[in-house]
């Protein structure tokens, strides 16, 4: 009988060499080839047709689980034995899923590899059938999809637990019934077509249809149906895998409706909404935008360069602005456009980066036509300039006149007087301004003058001028005569606006007024200078705070990267070296049994120490960065970590994570895992609690992590101190880890224990680690 052919698959040459050395001890088999990854293993299995494949799990290009599944699917006669140094429980399930014959931990290869292969070659039918049955049962029971088998008459012959959950019928209710039990009446023709295809030996992949539950409700499913053959190759039935895609269908419908609503909003908004590529290509513009550029249809502009529509003097500025937005920055810009018909418009644009499905970034802009506003602003500036010019002319005449001059309200209150009227009399402005003119100091010694002025105010307010020689006095009491006149100041419509008294000058009042204005200006300048100093100091404090936060985030990210690197080095270097050492020691034990029995006890002690070191290095590697986090996601990684901490610490930990929790972005999974790891470490070290509970769930578009203990808790003062950030490095580290993910951390504590609740949104965003520059830095 020819020796059995064995294909060795492992990404480490030293491991492959040691396995080949072990296999060379027997002539009942031969190594037909080696492969360094799953893809190469699949190619060589097709070409060499080995009897047995020894398959590692963690490999580049294609992992061993997927490679084993494909080999078993294409070449059922080829058996697979999985070898790995990963978690045994997880790898056992993966091996069952892939259809492997069995699984051997790498640490035990020296002891178990040859007996396992000998058992395979001995071909014990009962053992083979039992193993195959166990593997098949493991696959069916662990599947989240409904797995059903039927004969060619449509009679159900098997019905797994997921089928019970999805369709509502128990196995006893379904087995023996026709498959039409779950097929709606209007879909029965599908079953006829499927049976015909199965009779021809065809396979039905990912067929989307509708099926009926026991309660009569309908659900969307995706079916994969394969023919089942007997030992002679005759088709005797079918195996059907049904996946519930109802939620997926609803999500797709909701997405379509959301897109339609968004499209309707964009098309009905009066502003111009456009999408511009980094090179300036106009990707989309709504109807309002097309009208703004005088385009009859989108074909006239979409697909062309938007720079052609920008006024030449603003084109380079717009080009730089577009490149800045496409680099991830928000911003606003005002610029002129020239429409297709030559009409110039002034636009105000507010823009934000929009990530496309292919990963590129475009500018999403909402632009408003502000041409009329700009024209109104220009007219307003012109009116203000004319008013200022008119005021300047008035002040020149008012101050340069050789007569006293003043301005009064229609009620007779003096509101202004020229310098001459004050300086010549020795009065100050505050002595006369803001008072009824007839009560001013000039007339205090002359009641008759006061009465004449008071009686002249009302006629002057009606437009009747007044003029008379009256007495007045200087500040030293010197009496004087004044050729006094009171004129109305009217607008173009003839309405009296103010009254204008004229007489002798008042220079002292104007000097005081000017000094007051300068003092106010000086005070204002000092206040502004001090305000700028305070603003600059505040800005510097904020900048230093932001730099510190950014450094902290980068430090955390670098720490995670170094942990992953060290863990990988331990796995790929020390772990694989110990695997080789273990196999060499196993060979040494075999040789010692035959040639040096006195060395056997020492050799076995060495073997035990190697196994212990192997387990400790694997544990250390996993604590630094569990590969389950990358390979299987948060669910498996948390279960592994909690189980290990239970065994090491004796802490009674309850973990609540849904098995269908699914995968999250890598940074989010790392943040949640480290949050749980830090919290459990604090509970174990500081809380004096014997129990801990962890709940991780998806809620309201995000992920919530809730960790509790029943320890001694902390005082309100200590809790406030930690919440304020003045102490508690662990909590600050958690918050810094959540900050780039826009997550929040809440902490509660009393005499019943401590609770930490972290909430992190799962929607994609640019304001994560990449926004902080981590991608380029790391």
Mind explaining what this structure looks like?
It is a single chain. This protein is an alpha+beta fold and 778 residues long. It has 24 helices and 25 strands. The protein is elongated. Mean pLDDT is 83; it is low at 124-130 and 765-778.
Measure the end-to-end span: 58 Å
Backbone structural class: alpha+beta
The low-confidence runs, each spanning 5 or more residues with pLDDT under 50, are: 124-130, 765-778
Please bin the fraction of helical residues: 40-55%
Strand content: 15-25%
Overall pLDDT metric: 83
In short:
This protein is an alpha+beta fold. 48% of the residues lie in helices and 24% in strands. The protein contains 24 helices and 25 strands.
Provide the fold topology:
Layout: E1 4-9, H1 13-23, E2 29-35, H2 38-48, E3 52-56, H3 64-74, E4 79-84, H4 88-98, E5 102-105, H5 109-122, H6 125-142, E6 146-151, E7 156-159, H7 161-167, H8 171-174, H9 188-199, E8 204-212, E9 218-229, E10 235-244, H10 246-268, E11 272-276, E12 282-285, H11 287-292, H12 312-326, E13 331-338, E14 344-355, E15 361-369, H13 371-400, E16 404-408, E17 414-417, H14 419-423, H15 429-432, H16 447-461, E18 466-473, E19 479-490, E20 496-503, H17 507-595, H18 600-624, H19 627-631, H20 634-649, E21 652-657, H21 666-687, E22 691-699, E23 702-709, H22 716-724, H23 729-738, E24 744-750, E25 753-761, H24 774-777
Parallel strand pairs: 1-2, 1-3, 3-4, 4-5, 21-22
Antiparallel strand pairs: 6-7, 6-10, 8-9, 9-10, 11-12, 11-15, 13-14, 14-15, 16-17, 16-20, 18-19, 19-20, 22-23, 23-25, 24-25
């Amino acid at each position: 009988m020819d020796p059995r052919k064995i294909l060795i698959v492992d990404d480490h040459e030293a491991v492959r060499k040691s396995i080949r050395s072990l296999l060379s001890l027997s002539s009942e088999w031969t190594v037909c080839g080696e492969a360094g990854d799953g893809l190469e293993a699949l190619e060589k299995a097709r070409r060499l047709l080995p009897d047995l494949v020894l398959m590692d799990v963690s490999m580049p290009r294609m992992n061993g689980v997927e490679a084993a599944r494909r080999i078993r699917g294409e070449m059922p006669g080829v058996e697979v034995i999985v070898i790995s140094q990963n978690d045994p429980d997880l790898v056992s399930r993966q091996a069952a899923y892939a259809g492997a014959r069995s699984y051997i931990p790498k640490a035990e290869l020296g002891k178990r590899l040859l007996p396992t292969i000998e058992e395979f070659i001995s071909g014990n039918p009962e053992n083979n059938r039992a193993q195959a049955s166990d593997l098949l049962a493991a696959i069916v029971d662990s599947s989240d999809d409904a797995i059903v088998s039927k004969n060619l008459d449509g009679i159900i012959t098997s019905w797994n637990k997921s089928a019970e959950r999805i369709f509502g019928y128990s196995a006893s209710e379904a087995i023996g019934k026709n498959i039409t039990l779950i097929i709606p009446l209007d879909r029965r023709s599908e079953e006829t077509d499927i049976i015909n295809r199965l009779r021809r030996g065809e396979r039905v992949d990912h067929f989307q249809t509708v099926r009926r539950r026991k309660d009569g409700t309908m659900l969307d499913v995706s079916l994969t149906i394969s023919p089942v053959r007997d030992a002679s190759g005759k088709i005797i039935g079918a195996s059907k895998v049904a996946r519930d895609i109802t939620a997926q269908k609803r999500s797709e419908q909701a997405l379509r409706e959301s897109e339609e609503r968004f499209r309707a909003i964009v098309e009905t908004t009066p502003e111009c909404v456009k999408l511009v590529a980094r090179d300036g290509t106009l990707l989309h513009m709504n109807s309002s935008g097309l009208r703004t550029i005088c385009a009859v249809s989108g074909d006239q502009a979409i697909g062309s360069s938007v720079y052609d529509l920008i006024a030449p003097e603003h084109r380079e500025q717009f080009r730089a602005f577009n490149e800045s937005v496409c680099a991830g920055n928000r911003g606003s810009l005002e610029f002129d456009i020239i429409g297709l018909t030559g009409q110039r418009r002034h636009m105000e644009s507010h823009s934000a980066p929009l990530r496309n499905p292919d990963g590129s970034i475009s500018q999403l802009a909402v632009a408003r036509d502000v041409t009329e506003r700009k024209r109104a602003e220009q007219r307003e500036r012109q009116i203000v300039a004319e008013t200022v010019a008119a005021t300047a002319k008035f002040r020149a005449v008012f101050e340069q006149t050789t007569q006293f001059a003043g301005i009064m309200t229609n009620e007779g209150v003096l509101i202004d007087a020229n310098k001459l009227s004050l300086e010549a009399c020795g009065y100050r402005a505050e002595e006369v301004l803001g008072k009824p003119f007839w009560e001013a100091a000039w007339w205090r010694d002359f009641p008759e003058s006061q009465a004449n002025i008071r009686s002249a105010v009302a006629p002057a307010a009606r437009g009747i001028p007044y003029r008379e020689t009256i007495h007045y006095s200087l500040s030293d009491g010197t009496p004087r005569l004044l050729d006094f006149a009171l004129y109305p100041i009217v607008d173009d419509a003839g309405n009296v606006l103010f009254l204008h008294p004229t007489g002798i000058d008042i220079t002292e009042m104007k000097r005081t007024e000017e000094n007051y204005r300068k003092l106010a200006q000086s005070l204002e300048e000092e206040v502004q200078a001090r305000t700028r100093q305070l603003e600059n100091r505040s800005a510097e404090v904020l900048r230093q705070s932001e730099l510190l936060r950014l450094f902290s985030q980068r430090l955390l990210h670098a720490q995670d990267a170094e942990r992953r690197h060290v863990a990988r080095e331990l796995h790929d270097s020390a772990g694989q070296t110990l695997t080789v050492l273990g196999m060499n020691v196993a060979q040494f034990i075999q040789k010692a049994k035959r040639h040096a029995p006195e060395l056997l006890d020492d050799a076995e002690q060495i073997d035990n120490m190697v196994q212990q070191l192997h387990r400790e290095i694997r544990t250390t590697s996993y604590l630094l960065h569990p590969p389950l986090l990358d390979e299987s996601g948060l669910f498996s990684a948390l279960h592994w970590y909690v189980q290990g901490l239970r065994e090491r610490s004796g802490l009674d930990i309850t973990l609540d994570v849904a098995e269908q929790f699914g995968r999250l972005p890598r940074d989010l999974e790392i943040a949640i895992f480290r949050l749980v790891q830090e919290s459990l470490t604090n509970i174990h070290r500081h809380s004096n609690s014997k129990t801990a509970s962890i709940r991780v769930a998806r809620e309201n578009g995000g992920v919530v992590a809730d960790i509790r203990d029943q320890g001694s808790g902390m005082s309100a003062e200590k809790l406030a101190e930690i919440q304020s950030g003045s102490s508690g490095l662990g909590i600050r580290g958690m918050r810094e880890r959540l900050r780039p993910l826009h997550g929040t951390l809440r902490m509660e504590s009393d005499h019943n224990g401590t609770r930490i609740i972290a909430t992190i949104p799962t929607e994609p965003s640019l304001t994560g680690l990449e926004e902080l520059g981590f991608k380029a830095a790391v």
